[in-house]
Structure formats: structure tokens, C-alpha cells
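Data card: per-record layout.
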Amino acid sequence: MASLPFPIRRLWLLTRGAFVDRDRPDFHRLSSIRDPEKFVWAILPHAARSFAPSILLLSEDDARAAAIGYLYARMLDTYEDLSPEPAQAREALAAFASRFDSDRPGSAPSAPTPSDPDPRDRAHLLLVERHHLVDRVFMRLDGPTQARITKLIQDMSSGMIEFSSIFEGQEGVLDDEEQVLSYCHRVIGLPALFVMETLLGPVSTDHHRDALEVSELIQLANITRDIEKDLQRGIAYHPALRAYLGSEQGSAAAVAIARRDLIQLATRRAPSFRRLVDAVGLPRLSPARAAAVLMVLFTSRHYRDCGINAGMPFRSGPRRKSTLVLTSIPAAVSPRWADRVMIRVEADLLATA
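The structure for this 353-residue chain is written out next.
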């Protein structure tokens, strides 16, 4: 399969990714892969979730760069989320970033050892343990791409370390919207921005605000999904949840309030994605446009499902991954189709906001 042209392999990888069970990863298969390239594409659906199909719609070089950048970002996320103590997380984050100070990345810090990781967490821990395979693909990238990925990892690590101290100083809670949005920019928003720049090209200063809002929209999807899980590990992104830190469930009413507030904060940013795509000026034939549309569709599906569960009025829409992929593919050859899809999604999100 590796010897086939990437456009053919892409179809296989998209099909296989559509049937990956992230709740029950095939750990035996993932642990037995020795080829670095095969491991990158096999672990990507477990690490990138909705980003993985968008990455696969890019050209081969861009897809590989985006995949490596995102896998490294997931490793940092794993140290942050699964380290037993904040000080241990900060030490591991700093060490992981410093391994890129030389021409060839050194060994990564040992994977965290949480007491009871769920299957998705175990997949992320396996990724950290097998980081050397990702490093080998990283070393095949050209110098400027390596530099971009290195900057991503070092900026992201710095932001995570900063916010680890903020969380610790505020007893595990971000106090207001300004802190939440700053967290989106400094931490997980950075890989989102990295992937967007890979999709769409360099973002000008004039449109940097739109790029930040898109990163907020994407990262708030992660935050709204994981509220209960974050509470268990003593983290909250809404002051209404302060009393329930460390709880296995917390208050259903308080969680619903926090989820609704955060969804509304996110969906107000819906117009930024279409503005950013329009501003870049992609050519008429562009796989990157299809990848951008697919990212919009996955993000919309998340907020629709999450909002309905929180009692919010969302319109119905497609859920199957295959349907979303098929909806996005015409955007590669038709800017008008892309615009129609994004306008519809934008209207749905703004109706909720």
C-alpha cells in the first residue's frame, strides 16, 4: 500500500479511518507496526479525531506535515492531561519542547502513568511511547517545514506551562471568558492554526483575528465535549463548576449551564471561518478547500450534538462521517459549492448563538 500513489492511498486511509473505533483501539496492531509512515497514518485517526479526514484531503507533502505537527501536539496534550501532578506535567512539557533544540530530536520524556486511563487515553500514551517512529518521518521533511513544526511545539509547550501555573494558582478554574479564549490561543489553538495554515497558506496580519477566532471555535469544541472528564481531573473552564472539581459527575444543572455558555461563546465565532477561506484566495481547483469545508462540517456536527444534549435548539443535520466527507469533496473543484455549505453551517451556528 505504501508504494501506491498518495491519491489512491488517500482513498484507502479515508475509508479505513471512517471505520476506526476510537473507543476500542486495536492496540495489538498499533503496537506491532514498525514502518514509521504506516504508524503515522494508523495512529492519526486516534489522535486527531475530526482533523484526520481534513488532513488526508491535502496534497501528500502538506498532509504529512500536518499529520506530524498534530501528532506532536497530541503528545504534548497527553503530558498535560495525564501527568499525575501539575509540576510533573510542566517538567515533561519543557523537556519535550527542548528535544527540538538540536538538529535531530532526542528521546522524549517517559509517558505519564495515570491510574486508570480509558482506551482513548491509552492510544495517546502509546503514541508517546512510540514517538521515535514519528521522529523518523519528521526528519524526512524539508527544513522550513521542520522549523514550522518546531515553532508550533515550542510555542504550544510554553502556553501549556503558563496555563498549568494559572490553573494551579486559581484552584483549577479559569475565571472568565478572556482567560478561556487566551487558553484557546496559547494552547490547543496553536495546532489548529498550524493545520489551517497548512490548509490555506500563510495567514496575513489583516486576517489574524479571523484565524484566532477559528482556533477558538475549534478548541471550544474540545472543551465543551470534555467537561465531565476535565472535572474528574480537577480542571474547569467555567466558574459555575468550581464546587464540583474532582467530582465524577458534578451537578448536571451546573454542567449544562457551563456547556451552554461555552457553546454560545464558540458559535458567535462561526463567520470567521468563511471570511478566512475567502481571504486566502485559493485556486479554483484546490483540495485544501475541500479539507477546510470538511473541518467546518465536523465542527458543526460536534456543536449540534453537544448542544442538543445540553437542551439547546439545533437544527438536524448529517452525522455519518462518510456523508460529511462526500459533502466536502465537490468543494475541491467548486468554490460556489464550498461557499454554499459554509453559509449554511454558519447560519445554523449563529442561530444558536
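Known properties of this structure: Residues 27 and 341 are 37 Å apart (CA to CA). The chain has a mean pLDDT of 88.

See the next section for split statistics.
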